[in-house]
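Quick one before lunch.
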Amino acid sequence: MLEEVGLEYTTIPVNILKGEQFAKDFLTISPNNKIPAIVDHADGTGGPHFSLFESGAILIYLADKTGQLLPSSPRLRIEVLQWLMFQMASVGPMFGQCGHFLGYAPEKIPYAIDRYQNETLRLYKVMDKRLADVPYIAGDYSIADVAIYPWVHVRWLHEIDITQFPNVERWYNTLSDRPAVQRGCALLNEHEVIGDPSDETREAFFGKTQLEQGQ
Ligand SMILES: N[C@@H](CCC(=O)N[C@@H](CS)C(=O)NCC(=O)O)C(=O)O
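Model of the glutathione complex:
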């Protein structure tokens, strides 16, 4: 998103596989111990630095701040926000659980795997149907596409064959051709974002640490 809208930024990697999301300083910015979070040092008010967590809120903020990727007219704006909420409420949580039970859970639990893989496939169908009618998920290119793309980018974690969803595949390839998307992905590739499901990783990411420190 920052590449798309052309704002200057610096990144501070937070290695969630090592539990860095529980660091006290990070929790003051992101109290739910999740990435992403931002600090805006130039929010235009002249007040103290302003921080935000939750990617949907961050995307809306950056879109409003720059006047890009989120229309201002109520009808078009809510269309984008509707698909952004679809990502926040369904794609993110369901694909996330699918990846967890397929790749990270210490034991294979068929019910959980079926449940989340079926949900993931169902959501791909919803997107494929929608993208049969429009080039981008909310009509024009928007923050809703920016929010959904990363989850489709890591589809191997969910064992998805994108060729089964030709409209999603066309959409994915179109976004992948965007220079800003390429710059964003290159930045991501510089950091270890997906690790082996070791005991240490499980402990840092999903284990006691989270229960104890998340309170
Ligand atoms: N609804 C949140 C979800 C963010 C999220 O799940 N982040 C994961 C990585 S994809 C995370 O930071 N997990 C660390 C943890 O749960 O401890 C958003 O969209 O910002």
